[in-house]
Amino acid sequence: MKVVITPRGFANCGEENVKYFQKAGISLVYNQTGKAYTKEEFYALTADADGVIVGVETVDKAYIDSHPMLRAVVKFGVGLDNIDVAYCQEKGIFVGKTAGSNARSVAETAISFILADSKNLYESISNTKANGWSKMTGYEVEGKTVGIAGFGAIGKKVAQMAFGLGMKVLAYDPYGVDEAVAQKFDVTSVGLDALLERSDFVSLHIPLTEETKDLIGLSQLKTMKPQAVLINTARGGIVDEKALIEAIDCGEIAGAALDVLEKEPAAPDSPLLNRDSIIVTNHVASYSKESLDAISLICAGNIIKLYSGEEPLHRVV
Ligand SMILES: NC(=O)c1ccc[n+]([C@@H]2O[C@H](COP(=O)([O-])OP(=O)(O)OC[C@H]3O[C@@H](n4cnc5c(N)ncnc54)[C@H](O)[C@@H]3O)[C@@H](O)[C@H]2O)c1
Description:
By secondary structure, the protein is an alpha/beta fold. Helix content is 35%, strand content 15%. Nicotinamide-adenine-dinucleotide (NAD) binds next to helix 5 and helix 7.
């Protein structure tokens, strides 16, 4: 039995997780190169794999058809937009994800963006490193409104943290807002337009699907307050990046913090990188030791259970 793990994060989690696989008699290949695999490397390394644990590698029809031994695809995280789940199901291939495993880390990143913006930390650090000493006046976040689009594992954690900071919390989720959580953290459920209109921060926590592709376009950005900040730690394709640049340049919104981009890594000449009011990080929101440990453990558990004939805990199909 051979399993290939592509995300670099797995190698940072210590030997314990490797031992789980070894004890279960699984021959494990994992990425210790410190770099993402190229498409060619991914295809070649997994040519004889029974299972793959993937990050952002594309697992589409072409990949699945050229890997007939494949019995399991497990996402090292939660977003399944790079995996053709329906085709896996058709082919009888197990698909798993590590639901909730990185929710706290991603939520903390979203909140960090809010706090960094409120105290102009990015500008202050850049200015001080350039030997400047100029000061910008920030503001306190208490009483400000955060609008959370997508009230799942991450969205709910953001609500809890924002409530703790004394912020007002709005949530939009067409598939339902958990009433008990909403009550606990004083969350008001609203439609998307109301959320955009009323929020000082709009934080996206929804999956990238056909329905959510370019959900935030120019007209949605124009609906936001001119002083509002858009935070995207979900997926790049949810925000129309051209529209975002236009909205920033025209003063429709004040700024954006993006952990995810339509194309990653960012192109060196991407306009997103040379706007002072846009902060870009390298899809790092979930990269905490705790979250990587949890993801690794769940991935290992999923695969081991599957191969020992037990039902895995995090089956998608
Ligand atoms: N930056 C990162 O490193 C990172 C890490 C983890 C997850 N993510 C992204 O965050 C997303 C959310 O993760 P999660 O663990 O909270 O997932 P989740 O499945 O627990 O929650 C997603 C929520 O979005 C809602 N939703 C679906 N379609 C919607 C729509 N059109 N409008 C509003 N809400 C909608 C769902 O009802 C659900 O409540 C993932 O799909 C993934 O793409 C990014």
